[in-house]
């Protein structure tokens, strides 16, 4: 599978200047004086000065004292049901949770019928992704080694066909290099020869050596256990990080979006750029957009479902719309379109996935 993604962390951080946070109240209701900031209550006593105070000379300290006393009588405790816009916490921006500025996203119309229709089509036609058993040969490994093997396979899968990735992983297994310790001790030339012909095998061999060294020195031969820590590893981007969390740690923290999921989601009109009607420009934008409305119980299955559908029916070029049973719900049906990722003719090998 080809895994082209952006780095995760930048999309969730938004800095709002402090003064702006304090002035979200409508300007049309902005008080003109300090006294007018008090809640108006028909039952509250009127603030009046005696004629002698208006025409005569009153000591400044007396006026100040009387004013404070009168204001204290006017001001009432804020009622429990009175709601104001709270100041956002740092965690709100960092985790994209509880964001008071984001609006709820309505799920696309008929999305459940579309998923059910795709499931029926997938069950009746074999896809290349169905031929790969990710657990072949690794179930007998110790837990640490099995998790490291999952990380290695995920790194190799970037911009590489599934069967090529699988065969490279098997060669590493047969040569005893699917543990962080053995990989760390192996030379880069050996690793490169064993993983060839995966995409960018020279760069991936270097990344595997670096990853193995980090896992040995920092995690005692195991792999990182969080998305943030995985993203610090060479060659690891959001897609790989979320895939590893699911496969290695059995934790679902995000949707795995590759080029197939990215393409199909855009054709179905399921995703869009923030604040715009245009489709997403990258798999990472697609992941963020999907997670705003797709129920979490669908996050794992949606990857395999749409990958196989994209390999057999909703192909990058000349999609088989006539055979698609959900074309009536697809705004792109019978339009000869290519993958949204194909706008860039050259692939950047330096991009993390």
Automatic annotation (TrEMBL):
InterPro entries: DNA_glycosylase, Endonuclease-III-like_CS2, Endonuclease3_FeS-loop_motif, Endouclease-III_FeS-bd_BS, HhH-GPD_domain, HhH_base_excis_C, HhH_motif, NTH1. It is found in: Plastid, Chloroplast stroma, Chloroplast nucleoid. SUPFAM superfamilies: DNA-glycosylase. It catalyses: 2'-deoxyribonucleotide-(2'-deoxyribose 5'-phosphate)-2'-deoxyribonucleotide-DNA = a 3'-end 2'-deoxyribonucleotide-(2,3-dehydro-2,3-deoxyribose 5'-phosphate)-DNA + a 5'-end 5'-phospho-2'-deoxyribonucleoside-DNA + H(+). Its EC number is 3.2.2.-, 4.2.99.18. One of its GO terms (cellular component) is chloroplast nucleoid. GO terms for biological process: base-excision repair, AP site formation; nucleotide-excision repair. Its cofactor is [4Fe-4S] cluster. GO terms for molecular function: 4 iron, 4 sulfur cluster binding; class I DNA-(apurinic or apyrimidinic site) endonuclease activity; DNA binding; DNA-(apurinic or apyrimidinic site) endonuclease activity; metal ion binding; oxidized pyrimidine nucleobase lesion DNA N-glycosylase activity. Keywords: 4Fe-4S, DNA damage, DNA repair, Glycosidase, Hydrolase, Iron, Iron-sulfur, Lyase, Metal-binding, Transit peptide. PANTHER family: ENDONUCLEASE III HOMOLOG, ENDONUCLEASE III-LIKE PROTEIN 1. Belongs to the Nth/MutY family. This is Endonuclease III homolog. It comes from Nicotiana tabacum. The gene is LOC107762471.
